[in-house]
Amino acid sequence: MASAICNGILSFSRSTHSIGLPPKQAMRKNQNLRVRSMADGSEDVITKDVPEPPRVKPAPGFSQILAFSGPGPERINGRLAMIGFVAAIGAELISGQDLGLQLQNGGVSWFLGTSALLTVASLVPLFKGLTAEAGSGKVMSSDAELWNGRFAMLGLVALAFTEFVKGGALV
Predict the structure, then answer these.
(1) Which has the closest alpha carbon to 157: 106, 81, 55?
(2) Where are the alpha helices (DSSP H) in 19-141?
(3) What are phi and psi of 144, to 5 degrees?
(4) Cα–Cα distance between 119 and 113 in angstroms, integer?
(5) Using one digit for the tens of pLDDT, what is the confidence trace for 11-28?
(6) Deepest in the core among 18, 42, 90, 100, taking most CB within 10 A?
(7) CA 146, CA 10: separation in Å to the nearest integer?
(8) pTM to 2 decimals?
(9) Closest alpha carbon to 7 in 42, 31, 32, 47
(10) What are the residues whose beta carbons fall under 8 Å from the beta carbon of 156, sequence distance 6 or more?
(11) What's the rounded Cα separation, in Å, for the pair 31 and 29?
């Protein structure tokens, strides 16, 4: 193998001297220079198929994550709705207050704090390029999370509407 490389270098140096240029000037003018060498047969040549390196997708930007069809809005709203529905029903069962009274008696600060915390916790993996589908299993799948979030959103609207029509707490 080493002799093949030396043969290629020697043939290059001979060809540059034959046209009368020193090797450095010949290299500057001939940018598309090809060097070919052949094995002399005394060594076994091993060829391997080199696999292409995996293509890494760049992490999505803020506007891509929070786009209307992006991965963020429905997932974040669904997670907030799941927490909000369980918290609203739980507080209603314990205190007997409807949704409006819960919000008036300190619920807004809890809502804002929980919303900020869950939004940041949901956005961090998305900015790292991770998807919910990558970490989903058979039982706890990403599709199940989306459907549970959708039903929780509908549940919150139904709870608020029922309490409005009824004029008080559901329970």
Answers:
(1) 81
(2) 23-29, 62-65, 73-95, 99-102, 108-127
(3) -65, -40
(4) 10
(5) 444 444 445 555 555 555
(6) 100
(7) 68
(8) 0.61
(9) 42
(10) 81, 84, 85, 88
(11) 6
User: Residue 151, SS3?
Assistant: helix
Euclidean distance between CA atoms 28 and 25, whole angstroms? 5
Kindly report, residue by residue over 87-146, the tens digit of the pLDDT: 999 999 999 999 989 989 988 898 999 999 999 998 888 888 888 887 777 778 888 889
Instruction: Report the distance separating Cα 71 and Cα 67, nearest Å.
Output: 8
What backbone torsions phi and psi does residue 77 show, to the nearest 5 degrees? -65, -40
Who contacts 112 (Cβ-Cβ below 8 Å, separation ≥6)? none
Q: The dihedral of CA 123, 128, 131, 132: what is its sign?
A: negative
Contact indicator for 55, 61 with CB cutoff of 8 Å? no
Tell me the backbone φ, ψ of residue 135, rounded to 5 degrees. -105, 10
